[in-house]
Each structure stands twice: as structure tokens, then as C-alpha cells.
Design goal:
Structural class: alpha/beta
Strand content: 15-25%
Number of helices: 5
Order of helices and strands: HEEEEEHEEHEEEEEHEH
CATH architecture: 4-Layer Sandwich
Shape: globular
Largest sheet: 8 strands, mixed
CATH superfamily: Ribonuclease Z/Hydroxyacylglutathione hydrolase-like
């Protein structure tokens, strides 16, 4: 019963969002000539305890998190990467900000997506950096896309007793989605090297990061929760809730080596300073 109520809730939320769109926004744009990246504001997390990450407050430039969602638009299709901390279905008709515990969202995701010309039905692929609830909130809305996931991650998400920072109701519909199980190496989403998912386990069993080779911007690596704070890059500190600390340190070393070779920018998803410098949708990177 709870699962069916969740799905009905998503159907209602999506219908409301679509009715609110202008006619122009409901028409999908023509595919671009090269990959584009849109950055969406998906909320904030405040009141965190730095000790959870083995830091003292004075050791960090800032403690609060930003929550970010991303849309990649490629000539061959679209990819949604990470989908927020509070689902759009939690918003009331007046559109007022929604707060759940220490998380607040001021802008629902689907209207932001619509503002750049897309609906969930237009999304070819969905990939989550990992299953933690601050990255999965709107996953049910994209169940019609092909889900790109590593088997260990999926096993935890749909295990008998999911544990950790997880909200199974947020991604129930993915169980029946068309799914591509990724191997332990790079996955080239569109086959031309411009959108690549890299396996970086440790934070969770199947944690992954996203590498983009953009024509004008250059290479970018969207890091999921490989890091939460920039200060982690110069230390061996990992969160207290890490699935496998040793795996995380190996993944960090691997990614740091890749960054040196590729000369890619590193975007730490929760870092407010990084987020504040980025262009937000409807602007985009290409």
C-alpha cells in the first residue's frame, strides 16, 4: 500500500508540474551539436557536525552543504545526475520552501528542468552518484529512463533491510526501470568519450563520479560524495559513516591521478563555494 501511495504521489506531483509549464517549455529543444551541462539548485543542508567528517569547525572554510542536481544534454540523448534531497511531491501548491530536519529546498526540481525545455519523459538515462537520501529524492520521477548503476549499489538499495542514510521510498520505481549494470571500469554513456561514469567505491559500495569533456569549458569531474569539503583533498579524513574507508582512500587516489592526467576541474557537489561560482540553469556549460 505504501509503495502504491508513493507512486500515486509522484504521478500527481508530475501532473501538477506539467500543468504549470508554458507551452514552449513542454516542447523538447533540438539536440545540441555537443554536450551541455545544466546545474540545478536542489537545496541546502545546515547544522552539520564537523566531527562527523573528522574535522573541527575551525578547520573548515564552511560547514553547510549545498545540494546540486545536473542535466547532461548530448546529441544522442540526455542524462540526469543526482536528483535532490527533498522530493518535489513535498511542495505545497503555494510553492513555499520545504524543510525536512536539517535540509531545505526552495526550488522543486521538475520546474527547473522544464525551464530549460525538458520533462522526465525526455530523459534517456538516470545515474545517481550513490544511494544516500540527499542525492535520490526525485528518482521516482525518472523511472522511465534507463538506470545506470553498479550491482553492489543496487543490492543495497533493494535489500531486505536497507541501512544508512537512505530513503527507499524515494527510488521505489527504479526497481522496474530498464537498467544497465555497470562494470568496475569506466562507462562511456554515449560512446564518444564526452560523458563517462567512473567507478569510485568506498563512500557506498557502488559510488560513482561523472567525467565530462565539454567542447568550450574543457574537462570537468563531478565528484558525487568522493569529497564533501575541499579540505578533505589534503588529508586522509573520511566521514564516520563511510561504507569502506580503505576503498574510499583508494578511489580518491585514483581520481586525483586522473585529474592530473586529464587536467579536469573537480566539482565537489556539496561545496558551497564551488556552487556559488557556477552558472545555474537556464545557463549551461558546453
Amino acid at each position: 500500500m505504501r509503495r502504491s501511495q508513493t507512486l500515486r504521489g509522484w504521478q500527481i506531483a508530475c501532473a501538477i508540474a506539467l500543468m504549470a509549464l508554458p507551452a514552449l517549455a513542454q516542447k523538447r529543444p533540438q539536440p545540441p551539436k555537443s554536450a551541455r551541462l545544466y546545474v540545478f539548485d536542489c537545496g541546502s543542508i545546515k547544522g552539520l557536525d564537523p566531527a562527523t567528517f573528522h574535522f573541527k569547525k575551525e578547520e573548515l572554510a564552511g560547514v553547510d552543504f549545498v545540494v546540486t542536481c545536473y542535466l547532461v544534454v548530448h546529441p544522442k540523448g540526455t542524462l540526469m545526475w543526482d536528483v535532490g534531497v527533498i522530493p518535489d511531491s513535498a511542495f505545497k501548491p503555494d510553492g513555499a520552501p520545504v524543510t525536512e530536519r536539517i535540509s531545505t529546498v526552495t526550488k522543486p526540481l521538475l520546474p527547473q528542468l522544464a525551464a530549460v525545455g525538458y520533462t522526465p519523459a525526455d530523459i534517456s538515462y538516470i545515474a545517481l552518484s550513490h544511494y544516500h537520501s540527499d542525492h535520490t529524492a526525485n528518482a521516482n520521477a525518472f523511472a522511465g529512463a534507463t538506470w545506470l548503476v553498479h550491482q553492489p549499489e543496487r543490492d543495497v538499495m533493494f535489500g531486505d533491510k536497507p541501512q544508512g542514510i537512505i530513503q527507499p521510498a524515494h527510488f521505489t520505481a527504479l526497481r522496474n526501470s530498464k537498467t544497465t549494470i555497470l562494470k568496475d571500469d569506466d562507462y562511456d554513456v554515449f560512446g564518444d568519450g564526452t560523458v563517462v561514469i567512473k567507478y569510485a567505491p568506498g563512500h557506498t559500495p557502488g559510488h560513482q563520479v561523472l567525467y565530462l569533456k565539454l567542447r568550450k569549458t574543457g574537462p570537468v569531474l563531478v565528484a558525487g560524495d568522493l569529497y564533501h569539503y575541499p579540505e578533505e583533498r589534503n588529508s586522509d579524513k573520511t566521514p564516520t559513516f563511510e561504507f569502506n574507508r580503505e576503498q574510499s582512500l583508494k578511489s580518491r587516489a585514483m581520481i586525483e591521478d586522473f585529474l592530473k592526467k586529464s587536467k579536469a576541474q573537480l566539482w565537489i557537489e556539496h561545496d558551497l563555494a564551488t556552487f556559488n561560482k557556477l552558472k545555474k540553469a537556464p545557463e549551461f556549460y558546453e
